[in-house]
Amino acid sequence: MENRQRNTSVEKQIPSINADYVRSVERQDKKSRAKKVRLYRRLAVFTVMSIMVISFLVSQLVLSNNALDQKIEQKEKVVEELAKIQEEQEMLSLKISKLNDDEYIGKLLRKDYFLSEEGEIIFSLPESDDK
């Protein structure tokens, strides 16, 4: 009977040891699963944040390129306008220099106002309609 009592007490001890071991293994499994879940959550948050940052940077790059293209077009227009204005300025400078010449002024007066020098006779010809 003592053997039986020992056996039953030993049997009670064995399942309790197994139960403790099983519980500890289950706790470890739960911890490892919880770690994996936290890891996946962190990776998901990191991925979402990375995608947001990358999309923001790409959109800024596209906007910068568009702004650069507009500025280049604007620069080309301004350069063309500058060339026209410089050409006009050269023409006006030439005209100013000619207007300082007395002979040129005399030619303009004779041509536009039909004035003549001494001894000149002015003939006006009618314009022909054949043109």
- State the low-pLDDT regions, or none: none
Strands, total number:
0
> What Rg is obtained from the alpha carbons, in whole angstroms?
51 Å
Number of domains: 1
CA distance, first residue to last residue = 147 Å
Principal-axes geometry comes out as rod-shaped
List key phrases describing it.
mainly alpha, 131 residues
Structure in a nutshell:
84% of the residues lie in helices and 0% in strands. It has 131 residues and is mostly helical. The radius of gyration is 51 Å and the shape is rod-shaped.
Describe this structure in words.
This protein has one domain. 84% of the residues lie in helices and 0% in strands. The protein has two helices and no strands. The longest helix has 98 residues, at 2-99. The protein starts with a helix and ends in an 18-residue tail after the last helix. The model has no long low-confidence stretch (mean pLDDT 86).
Topology of this structure?
Elements lengths: L1 H98 L2 H12 L18
